[in-house]
Structure formats: C-alpha cells, structure tokens
Amino acid sequence: MKRRHKRIAFILVGLSGIAIAAYLVASAFRNNLVFFFSPTQVVAREAPINRTFRVGGLVQDGTLKRDPDGLTVRFVVTDTAANVPVVYKGILPDLFKEGRGCVAQGRIDAQGVFHAEQVLAKHDENYMPPEAGQAIDKAKYAREAAKTVVGN
Length: 152
What we know:
The protein is of the alpha+beta class. The chain folds into two domains: 1-33; 34-151, CATH 2.40.50.140. 38% of the residues lie in helices and 28% in strands. The protein has three helices and seven strands, in the order αβαββββββα. The chain is elongated, with a radius of gyration of 23 Å. The chain starts with a helix and ends with a helix.
C-alpha cells in the first residue's frame, strides 16, 4: 500500500472509532435521563408507562400507611389538583412526613400506581424541588382560574 492509502485508512478508522464512541455516549445518556412530571401530568397520562421518571409534590395528609412487613409504604403525592398513589419498599428519609414535599423516582403501572425505587424528601424548612414548587403553583393558579370562570 502506498503511504497515501495508509493515511486515508488511518483517518477512516479514526472517524469510525469516534462515531462509535459518540453513539455509545449518547445511548448511555438517553438511558440514564430521568424526567420530572407533576401529579397532574401523570394523571393526564403525559408520563411514560415503561420508563423511569420522577413525580413530585406534597405527601397528602392521612395517606401514609405502612404494610405489616415494615418496609413497604403507601402514600399519595399531590400537587393540590391531582393525586398519584405511590408504593415504596425501603427505608424512608428521616425528613419524610405528611404534608411535606417529596420527589419519588420509579415507574407507573397500568393501574396508575407509581412504584418508587427511590424517595427524596426536602432537606429543610424552606426547600421545595423547583419542579414540584412550579407544579403546585400551576395547580393553584388553574384552580383559582376555574373558580373565577365558574363564579361569573
């Protein structure tokens, strides 16, 4: 082979390697990407059925129930407009309480029950995940707008 052919072959092999590496990085990024949805979006079926995502809002008062096994916990996450039942098997964070903000990561089944793999609680008095706070504010605004339309 001539020197020129060797150089072209080297460049083609290098470009192929870069393309394969870029594809592997992009597919790994896509598989690890987790989106956030509010309970209103989950109830409206905007959330994916067979993919992991996060749902966040407030833990509805009076819904926190523990199964006899001691690890399985059932509660409802709400954005004050819609509710999503959540089942979690594991140890909850110390700051997890009814009436406080939380974010759960997992999958939803065909019956609309969210099976959480991880539950995160807010870490101090003033913290609310930005997405959860926006979802709650949006739900309050929609509820107030509905009242003014009905009131007229």
